[in-house]
């Protein structure tokens, strides 16, 4: 079943192992907010993809607040690149185009490239672009922007509301 943007009101905090950037809280824990008997496993799965995308957007917005300049696109690697839905969600939540390497193998390319740089066979880091080809980028849909902006704000509010409880719970 196709789940709409916002997962019908389901918001997940994806802090299964605490959280690093940008909240830096080892006591942060995963939470599911808004779960009802109406929601299905597909809703939860969709909300998890949105949650990871919200977490990345949180890092992006925190970096931008410090004046950090970011590239105009995201490079997605690993198993998640096999999911057209996840690429689309990531693009829509962040409003950045998402690019993926054709054929995968990003880690192996990176290892080989760093080894070549390490032994002096390659001097220019920009040369790695010659080693890779990319799929057409997944472009963000403006149709979901307003909704995802609202859900992102709720995502941030849920963490702020639970932060004290998470920290207190860790002391028990």
> If classified by CATH, what would the architecture of one domain be?
2-Layer Sandwich
Please count the beta strands (DSSP E, at least 2 residues each).
Answer: 4
Q: Which shape, going by the Cα principal axes?
A: globular
Number of helices: 5
Please write the CATH class name of one domain: Alpha Beta
> Proportion of β residues?
5-15%
Describe the secondary structure blueprint for this structure.
Elements: E1 11-13, E2 31-33, H1 41-65, E3 74-76, H2 84-94, E4 98-100, H3 106-118, H4 128-131, H5 145-170
Parallel strand pairs: 3-4
Antiparallel strand pairs: 1-2
Helix pairs in contact: 1-2
Q: Can you characterise this structure?
A:
- This protein is mainly alpha-helical and 172 residues long.
- The protein has a domain of 90 residues: 2-Layer Sandwich (Nucleotidyltransferase, domain 5).
- It has 5 helices and 4 strands.
- Strands 1-2 form a two-stranded antiparallel ribbon. A two-stranded parallel sheet has the order 3-4.
- β3, α2 and β4 form a beta-alpha-beta unit.
- The chain is globular.
């Amino acid at each position: 079943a196709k789940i709409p943007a916002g997962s019908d009101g389901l918001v997940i905090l994806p802090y299964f192992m605490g959280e690093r950037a940008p909240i830096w809280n080892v006591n942060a824990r995963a939470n599911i907010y808004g779960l009802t008997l109406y929601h299905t496993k597909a809703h939860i799965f969709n909300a998890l993809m949105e949650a990871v995308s919200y977490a990345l957007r949180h890092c992006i917005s925190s970096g931008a607040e410090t004046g950090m300049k970011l590239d105009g696109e995201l490079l997605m690697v690993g198993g998640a690149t096999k999911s057209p839905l996840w690429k689309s969600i990531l693009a829509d939540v962040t409003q950045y185009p998402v690019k993926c390497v054709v054929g995968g193998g990003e880690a192996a390319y990176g290892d080989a490239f760093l080894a070549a740089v390490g032994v002096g066979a390659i001097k220019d880091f920009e040369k790695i672009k010659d080693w890779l080809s990319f799929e057409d980028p997944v472009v963000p849909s403006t149709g979901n922007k307003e909704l995802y902006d609202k859900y992102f704000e709720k995502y941030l509010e849920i963490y702020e509301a639970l932060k004290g409880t998470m920290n207190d719970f860790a002391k028990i």
